[in-house]
Each structure stands twice: as C-alpha cells, then as structure tokens.
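tl;dr need the bound structure. longer version: we got a ligand (adenosine-5'-triphosphate) that a collaborator sent over and nobodys looked at where it sits. i said id run it. heres the input, straight from their email, havent touched it
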Amino acid sequence: MDGIEVRCKLAWPGFTLDVDLTLPGNGVTALFGHSGSGKTTLLRCLAGLERAQPGRVVFKGQTWQDEKTWRPTHQRPIGYVFQEASLFAHLNVLDNLRFGQKRSGSSGRVSLDAAIELLGIGHLLERKPDALSGGERQRVGIARALAVGPEILLMDEPLAALDLKRKQEILPYLERLHDELEIPVIYVSHSPEEVARLADHIVALDGGRVIAHGPLAETLARIDLPIRLGEDAGVVLDACVGAIDEAWHLARVDFPGGSLWTRDNGLPAGRRVRVRVLARDVSLAIGDTGPSSIQNCLDGRVESLAADDHPGLLLVRVAVGDSLLVARLTRRSADQLGIAPGLPVRVQVKSVALME
Ligand SMILES: Nc1ncnc2c1ncn2[C@@H]1O[C@H](COP(=O)(O)OP(=O)(O)OP(=O)(O)O)[C@@H](O)[C@H]1O
C-alpha cells in the first residue's frame, strides 16, 4: 500500500511505452535512460498528462487510474517541476508562489514558508522573474511545486536547461530536498552525476521498457545488467567523512565495510557523502601485496563474474563488508589468479570520486 503502482501501455508511431512496476513510496527515484527512452512519457502518465491504455496508477492505495477511474491532473496531489520554470512575468516571486498555492486550494504538508526556506529563496521574494538567474528561477519553480503541498514531487530534468555553473549551484538544494522532504520524488534525468548524487532508487529505461530497477547501490552493483551510470560500470556508496589528514591533504571516508582515502576537498569530518568507485579503478590481488602506491586496500570476497563489453575483459563483483564493489580485470589475469566466487581477495582502489 505504501508504493506507487504503475502499469502503462502507450503506443505512438515508432515508440511504445510498456511499463509495469511498483515505485517506492519514499526517497528519490531516478528515471534514467537515453534520450527518447520514455522517461518523460512515464512521468506524464503518473501526472495524468498522458492517458495510457491500458493504464493503472495507484498511489499509496489511492487509485488515480484504472479501467473505471481517471483522476485528471488537478485532482492528483502532485507537484510538477519542468525543465524550465514558467513564472508569471508580472508577478513577483512571492505572488508567483501564492498563485500556485491558491489554485490548488492547498494547505498541504510542505508549507509555503518551508518551501521558501528549503530552496533558499527568502531574499528573492520581491523580485520579478526577469531579475532572476536561471538557477534562481528554477529554485522558485521547485518551491512553487512544493508550496501546493503535494504528496509526491515529479521532476522532469530540472537542471537540463542550466549551464554547468548553475547546475552546481542548485544541486545542493536538491540534496536538501533529498534529505529533508518526506514525500517521494520521481526525478527524470539522463545525467549520471545527478543520479549518483541524488537517487536512492533507479529505474533504467530503454526503448520504452524497464531494463532494471531497484535500490541505487544494489542495482549498479549488478554486473549481469547492461546499465551503466556514464561511461563505465561502477558503484555508488553511502559514506561519511571519518577523518582528515591535514598534513597530506587527504580525507578518509568510511562506508559500511571499510574506509577509503581520497583528496581532501574541505568537507568536515562527520559529513555524509556519496562516493563513486568505477570498475576501472578497482583491481584485485591474492594475499599480501607488499608495498604499493595504491593506499586503499580492502579485504573482500568474490561474489560473481560476468562478461564485460570486450572479450578480453571481465567484471567481478566483490563484497567488502556490507558493501559491494565492481572490479574490471582482464580474463587472463582472472584466470591466472584463479578468481572464482567465494575467493578471499585484496581489493585495491586506485581512485574515488567524492560527491558532496
Ligand atoms: N505526443 C507524442 N506523440 C508521438 N510521439 C511522442 C509524443 N511524445 C513523445 N513521443 C515520442 O516518444 C518517445 C519517448 O519520448 P520521451 O520524451 O518520453 O523520452 P525521454 O526519455 O524523456 O527523452 P529526453 O531525455 O530526450 O527528454 C520519443 O521517441 C518521442 O519522440
């Protein structure tokens, strides 16, 4: 009853969306895939902006669509964020926010004040939209979607129209949403960085079909799946800055199963972070390896092996404590080392990307 059931079939010339899944009723779920894979169409089906036939949408026990029921968009408790916020040019920011709130007749869970605070737009309330930067406009757009007191937030590539600098400015606010909102967020993106930083769950789409879905870390560690976040296979770990070595400008991040040292980029000890570890940066050794320039060395156990894109390469999934890492090896070295499920290995991690 807590999840979001979505069954949608919708055919256009040259494209069919065919999805049947239950999305989690909490956290951030990324709809991820190439351009044209059907992400926006699926989001629009949830919002009631497209009517799939057959279609079934049941949100936490409330039926929004089935054979007999059709709730139009304005009767669904959603907040919708588009790629670009279309604000009323003649109204200032506060009136834009109030307008959305009045129309919805809402006194919902996330109040106007809370939305203003969460998006850090308190100093912009008197401004007209044309006096806002692209990033500020989008923060106002997100606050407006929250001010209606939605029970779910649907976001369609909210950063796509922004340049890199603005994206970096707005990502921390999205992370706050991730940490502080109690409502589920469905987030359409084809950006590996956004997904790695924000998503708890992932639904990977290809050609209108779901090719993988599940919790982010677990799904990325599935070496039998063809999904990649970006150019390489790899995992994302939830971690915490454990210590700073000021003399050597290094930070230690602790994750369930071990610790990794990485460049110190000013984050304080105790800060929760995500760490991305790519398969190409992980190698395996048997027994004591002796001195090495690679300082991150962990004890692990091989779980499984799978073919990689090239016939000379393999992906190896390794359990390190309660976490999973993926290593890429040549088939020859895997054969020479006798890599097989259950084998204890030393896991060497050459490089780690910290996502603040
Ligand atoms: N109203 C429509 N009528 C016909 N075809 C459509 C319609 N809307 C979308 N499509 C097609 O459906 C396919 C999926 O589109 P959709 O916008 O859902 O993809 P997407 O994964 O969100 O892509 P992008 O990342 O580029 O936004 C595309 O081939 C698109 O051209």
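gonna send this back to them w/ a short note. Helices lie at 39-47, 93-104, 112-119, 134-147, 164-180, 192-198, 216-220, 331-337.
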